[in-house]
Design brief:
Number of domains: 3
CATH class of the largest domain: Alpha Beta
Mean pLDDT: 86
Number of helices: 24
Number of strands: 22
Strand content: 15-25%
Distance between the termini: 129 Å
Shape: rod-shaped
CATH architecture of the largest domain: Alpha-Beta Barrel
Bound molecules: ligand C2E, calcium ion
Largest sheet: 8 strands, mixed, barrel
Oligomer: single chain
Radius of gyration: 48 Å
Length: 722
């Protein structure tokens, strides 16, 4: 091409590498790699059109970029003569570049292991880079001459190895999940791209700098292009690369907005799910989520390599929550439930699950609880936490306890019955008086099932007239006169025979039947009093009220209605109320209303639970009933004697009469009389009996009651349960 080519036959020259040109080539390498990374990522898109579009456009732009990297470097060789290039090699290199990029990018669609794919792509880029450099050098119209061993090394391998390694490392940093912590993909990609550009520039300097050039005397071939034209082509290729990058930039912004949208969508989803799975009051998981977690935990325990993994499920039910709710209002009840939830949450371990699954019911799931002993300790901590006082919004302070049923898995499986078994165990704890825990036993399951059956039958029992009241006399300690009777309910079951109240009253309480049952008892007792009154018998009748009945708002009103309907003297009625009820504010408030009706009040089973004489003084109570468990071994136990003695003295000091209930032997009677108990009740005198029997008993024996009172023949023959 040069018209004024030097006439020298040959001249040897080493290139004076032009720094800015090499730097520009390195910059192009950086941009090339950035585009390549972006296109490779797009190639993984599930959308085929996106992948194909990026494959074609990306390969052209990136191919043009890589081509420009090599050919732009040639424009800065700094040879003493002007250089021309073989047109076919220049164009052929462009074709190779684009084809090579098509192949490298296509590998992104292969389902190889990530590292394999990245390795192949890195090597591919390295090889392509070297191939293009070779073609670039081959395009020189002037014969390049290899001079020196370094040049051989440079020509053959070192730059290729360097560039391939750099490409590999850069791809790895951008795409491997291991590096994800370093920052977002874009950042990692451009860090790698800069590294690649630097290595590419270094490799070019090495390769080109190690060469010696000889000016050819004879220009070779026809299609020769000059340096200026090549520079123009390089500029055009760089432009194509920049256009590709611009596309990538727009694309990144669009997809980042898409990602934002998707993430806010998934956040909204998460909230919805949370709402569906959590209890709005306590923010604890609800039953649905608990069951989900339980399922997952069960799977872990059942897994073949789970070792000795185990879990415990606890059913926690508050005792005495309903009265708090009824008397202080729902806001107070909610506050208490929230506080209970918080306390349970605080004491649970990170891996435990605490859920609220019903009004005042909570569940706790503990993985690897440390056997029954460990589960017991957790239950103890739950009991202590729940027992701490609650401060209500109105400033009042209330105390609660809870009953806990525990199932251990796998011991108390099978898994579908865990919750039912935990419930049965909880109910066993309730039956035992509450404020405690019970670990599941198979008999409890049976009990639970039997109770379910029983409640089903009990529902119809009142209407079918299957309930009856039996009456057990109380006699005056000194005169032996009958002072009254206690009405005790029985269920004449058509198939099972006579069922004791101890069996079906707890069932009625649990399943919400106690109100109807209690009302029937009140009504029937009033009817009987009227009948006895008509017969000329002024018989005092004691009626047992359960704690549940006392919590009912309309108890006083219902009692008044019964008294009026049967037109009886309210003074003939005594209401027996168990001592444990004295803990509840709602019950205590019912006391004064009842007393105003003119009925007498008696504290039943006194001395077994928590006794509070200070409180008794303030209540309109006239009688204490001492349970037989306090004096059954009174002949042998000095402690028992001291307790009964103290109770009697205290009661008398407060003006209360003491009834000893469950007197079975002469010896007991003698001791109790010596301790100055006012009235006695028990099998020694008579067992509970039907009303007509009692009428005969009372009329027939009345005259005989003396200090040496003996059970009558009626009592001995009377139908009994005990
Ligand atoms: P309670 O009120 O403590 O009744 C006394 C229980 O002791 C009665 O059992 C009675 O039959 C029994 N008993 C009486 N003398 C003796 C004796 O010398 N030895 C022994 N071992 N036991 C004696 P019962 O009738 O089975 O009633 C059990 C409990 O059921 C009652 O205990 C009471 O809490 C409840 N109950 C009975 N009737 C009603 C009722 O109408 N309404 C309510 N809410 N509860 C009732
Ligand atoms: Ca009683
Ligand atoms: Ca009693």
């Amino acid at each position: 091409m040069p018209a004024n080519a030097p006439t020298l036959a040959s001249a040897l020259a080493t290139p004076q590498l032009h720094g800015p040109t090499l730097a520009a080539a390195a910059l192009l390498a950086v941009l090339f790699f950035g585009l390549l990374g972006h296109a490779l990522r797009k190639m993984r898109s599930t959308d085929a059109l996106t992948a194909i579009g990026w494959w074609a456009a990306g390969a052209v732009a990136a191919g043009a970029g890589l081509w420009a990297v090599q050919f732009s470097a040639l424009t800065g060789l700094g040879l003493p003569w002007s250089v021309s290039f073989r047109g076919w090699a220049v164009a052929g290199a462009g074709l190779v570049a684009v084809t090579g990029m098509l192949l490298v990018m296509a590998s992104a669609r292969l389902s190889w292991a990530d590292t394999t794919r990245q390795t192949v792509q890195g090597l591919g880029v390295g090889v392509l880079w070297a191939l293009l450099q070779a073609m670039a050098l081959a395009s020189l119209g002037d014969q390049p001459v290899v001079s020196g061993a370094t040049a051989v090394l440079a020509w053959a391998g070192l730059p290729v190895a360097l560039v391939a390694a750099a490409a590999l490392a850069a791809l790895w940093i951008a795409f491997s999940a291991r590096w994800a912590a370093m920052g977002p993909f874009e950042l990692r990609l451009w860090v790698g791209a800069v590294g690649f550009g630097l290595v590419s520039g270094l490799a070019q300097a090495l390769a080109l700098g190690g060469l010696g050039f000889e000016e050819s005397a004879r220009p070779l071939g026809v299609l020769l292009i000059g340096e200026g034209t090549l520079k123009l082509a390089c500029g055009a290729s760089a432009l194509a690369l920049l256009l590709g990058l611009f596309g990538a930039l727009i694309d990144t912004r669009a997809s980042s907005r898409n990602r934002q949208l998707a993430s806010s969508l998934s956040e909204a989803n998460r909230r919805l799910r949370e709402q569906a799975l959590s209890d709005p009051l306590t923010r604890l998981p609800n039953r649905l989520l608990f069951e989900e977690r339980l399922e997952a935990a069960l799977e872990r325990v059942d897994a073949p390599n789970a070792g000795d993994a185990a879990l415990a499920v606890m059913f926690i039910d508050l005792d005495g929550f309903k009265p708090v709710n009824d008397s202080f209002g729902h806001a107070a009840g909610d506050a208490v439930l929230r506080e209970v939830g918080q306390r349970l949450h605080n004491l649970a371990r990170q891996t435990d699950v605490v859920a609220r699954v019903g009004g005042d019911e909570f569940l706790l799931l503990a993985e690897r609880p440390g056997g029954e002993a460990g589960a017991g300790q957790v239950a103890q901590r739950v009991l202590q936490a729940v027992a701490k006082p609650y401060r209500l919004p109105n400033g009042a302070e209330v105390h609660l306890s809870c009953s806990i049923g525990i199932v251990m898995y796998p011991e108390n499986g099978p898994s579908p019955k865990l919750l039912a078994n935990a419930d049965a165990a909880m109910y066993a704890a309730k039956r035992a008086g509450g404020a405690g825990f019970a670990i599941f036993e198979p008999s409890m399951e049976h009990d639970a099932r039997a109770q379910l059956e029983l409640q089903h039958e009990l529902r119809g029992a009142i209407d079918r007239n299957e309930l009856v009241l039996y009456y057990q006399p109380k006699v005056d300690g000194r005169s032996g006169q009958v002072t009254g009777v206690e009405a005790l309910v029985r269920w004449q079951h058509p198939a099972r025979g006579m069922i004791a109240p101890g069996v079906f009253i707890p069932v009625a309480e649990r399943f919400g039947l106690i109100s109807a049952l209690g009302q029937w008892v009140i009504d029937e007792a009033c009817r009987q009093v009227r009948e006895w009154t008509n017969q000329g018998l002024r018989m005092r009748v004691s009626i047992n009220l359960s704690a549940h009945q006392l919590r009912q708002e309309n108890l006083v009103q219902r009692l008044r209605q019964s008294i009026q309907a049967h037109d009886i003297d309210p003074a003939l009625l005594t209401l027996e109320i168990v001592e444990s009820v004295l803990m509840e504010d709602a019950a205590i408030r019912a006391f004064s209303g009842l007393a105003q009706l003119g009925v007498a009040l008696s504290i039943d089973d006194f001395g077994i639970g928590y006794c509070n004489f200070a409180l008794l003084r303030k209540l309109p109570v006239t009688q204490l009933k001492v349970d037989r468990s306090l004096f059954s071994d009174i002949q042998h136990s000095a402690d028992a004697l001291a307790v009964v003695d103290a109770i009697v003295k205290m009661a008398h000091a407060l003006g209360l009469r003491v009834v000893a209930e469950g007197v079975e032997t002469d010896a007991q009677r003698d001791m109790l009389l010596a301790l100055r108990c006012d009235e006695l009740q028990g099998y020694l005198y008579a067992k509970p009996m039907a009303a007509d029997r009692l009428t005969l008993w009372a009329m027939g024996e009345e005259g005989l009651h003396g200090p040496d009172f003996r059970p009558s023949i009626y009592a001995a023959a009377s139908p009994t349960l005990q």
